[in-house]
Amino acid sequence: MALNGSLLKQLLRFMLGRSLSLCLLVGLLALLGTVPALANSKLPAQAHLPQRDVAAAVFPDYEQRNLIIHNYEVQVQQAPDASIQLRLLAAQYLRRFREQADVEDLLRAEHAAQRAQAIQPSSEAALLLASTLLSQHRFREALQLVTETPQATAETVALQASIQMELGDYEAAHQLIQSLPTDAEHSGYSAIAARYLELTHHLDAARQLLDASVQRIDSFYTNAAEMRAWFHVRSGDLAFVAGDLTESERRYQEAIALFPQDIAARTGLARLYAAQHRWQAALAVANQGIERVPLVETLGYKADAQRALGDPQGVEETEALIEVVARLSKVQGIYDRALAVYYTEHGIHLPDALEIAQREVAVRDDIYAEDTLAWAAAANGDWQTAQQATQQATRYGTEDALLHFHRGMIALHCGDPADAQAQLRLALRLNPTFHHKYAAEARQTLTQLTHTVVLKPATLSLLTSAGPAS
């Protein structure tokens, strides 16, 4: 498959810099609450949100990002030992990285933060430097940096909690979260607490906390558009997991209204439309996201839509692009769990899927890394690993239907039909349309289990050569 130069450049620059939004959020909320360089300038044209909540108009600060960065670069050139200017410049590079996914900005931010820390060590510089390390999947380096920072602040503690969740140490994360100030006005802390609640069987509470943060962060015009959009995307994600698809779609559309370049919102919409079998809509919104940055997850939804719409040539071309991304990932040493998920769900490159999942667990042993490993191991016939990993993935009762579907199907193969029934019923109760293919498979398997004493393993799609859900 031939790739145009622009698309290849996007791929090359993006692979290293897959953003860990929650971790970056803490530092940026602390350091970038307003845009001082434009404080006295004429306000640009305003956009408005199509939402129920009363919200401030949208400040399209991303349109001014290059100018803001240029101003700080000039200041740093004039005073190269000014640590404050270096920190502000690093924060702006990180902001542009989140907006444009250009790895060069991530590396510029790391360099500026290192210089600032060398000139005058501070928790602010450490936060920025740690954020750049996290976006390069250097989790333990980032954790060591913020842990060893003298005079720990609420921001460094919050970042530690976020990193511990990435590493799968939820007990440590809980202790850190409990030590944070009970400041309802700090949206960054609320976002981290909401993530913990989401992962530990308190989805309703997580949604309430995050939605309150959405309303709070939307009330200030000077909050960055991309950051405001991030909260809407997260609210949309939680609504999808809860099976509230109308609310999920609304939140994703709000994110795009806030920040028209938002990729995560379009990926969320593609997942939602696929789950509803709205294939034309899924294809259209996936294409919009891919034009910006070709993420494996978004490409996967595009391929699924093309397959459902009877376009085998399109599927072949999209999967060829997924392979380009896979090769670039391997070169950069970044192992994208979305790639392992796609391979496993479609029964292709199964040994590669398992290798990616194993590497992911070694670097980032969170609930979803364990779930990816469980499903990839099942597809490769390693049922002992699959069983162990799926139990790890569901040990906190996370209210995500996909996790419970995986555990149910693995339990069925491993000779535990009672647990299989319980897990599949739970999956469908949590979200009846949790996946465009697996939701129907869960219902079919439950029907078979209801009418037979033991479902023979040979009847399971899980055992076919095409993988867990061929």
Question: What brief labels describe this structure?
Answer:
470 residues; mainly alpha; Serine Threonine Protein Phosphatase 5, Tetratricopeptide repeat; 24 helices; globular; disordered N terminus
Care to describe what's here?
The protein is mainly α. Among the domains are: 17-48 and 57-214, Alpha Horseshoe (Serine Threonine Protein Phosphatase 5, Tetratricopeptide repeat); 359-463, Serine Threonine Protein Phosphatase 5, Tetratricopeptide repeat (Alpha Horseshoe), CATH 1.25.40. The chain has helices at 5-14, 21-31, 65-78, 83-100, 103-119, 123-134, 139-147, 154-167, 170-178, 187-199, 203-217, 225-241, 245-258, 263-275, 279-292, 296-308, 312-332, 337-346, 350-363, 367-379, 383-393, 401-413, 417-430, 438-451. α2 packs antiparallel against α10 (187-199), α11 packs antiparallel against α12 (225-241) and α14 packs antiparallel against α15 (279-292). The longest helix has 21 residues, at 312-332. The chain starts with a helix and ends in a 19-residue tail after the last helix.
